[in-house]
Write a structure and sequence with these properties.
Blueprint lengths: L1 E6 L2 E4 L4 E9 L6 E7 L6 E6 L4 E3 L7 E6 L4 E6 L8 E8 L11 E2 L3 E6 L1
């Protein structure tokens, strides 16, 4: 089992920045690929970014604005979000899995989510 706890969400104006954190406990953190997903009201949960040990990948809408990183020594994955837009408003979830994928089904463990609201 892996337990994931997100933090760092909040209310920010368009153009601002936030850094989300996801603290992991349980099994060896470094064994897992980590992903960030988001879900806006009335919409499906969608992929945002993923990271393994050296590779990262982003959905097109956040490329150049968001950066995913991980600190294996502290069992934490981060999502730095810059130049935020109102359409980035969503609940953000981190997830852990053994496959390097953008599919929700590839991730076995999920956090409870943290709300990000971007005002215009």
């Amino acid at each position: 089992q892996v337990q994931l706890v997100e933090s760092g969400g909040g209310l920010v104006q368009a153009g601002g920045s936030l850094r989300l954190s996801c603290a992991a406990s349980g099994r060896t953190f470094s064994n897992y690929a980590m992903g960030w997903f988001r879900q806006a009201p009335g919409k499906e949960r969608e992929f945002v970014a993923r990271i393994t040990w050296v590779s990262t990948y982003y959905t097109e809408s956040v490329k150049g604005r968001f950066t995913i990183s991980r600190d294996n020594a502290n069992n934490t994955v981060y999502l730095q979000m810059n130049s935020l837009k109102p359409e980035d408003t969503a609940v953000y979830y981190c997830a852990a899995g053994v496959a390097y994928s953008s599919l929700r089904s590839a991730y076995d463990y999920w956090g409870q989510g943290t709300q990000v609201t971007v005002s215009s």
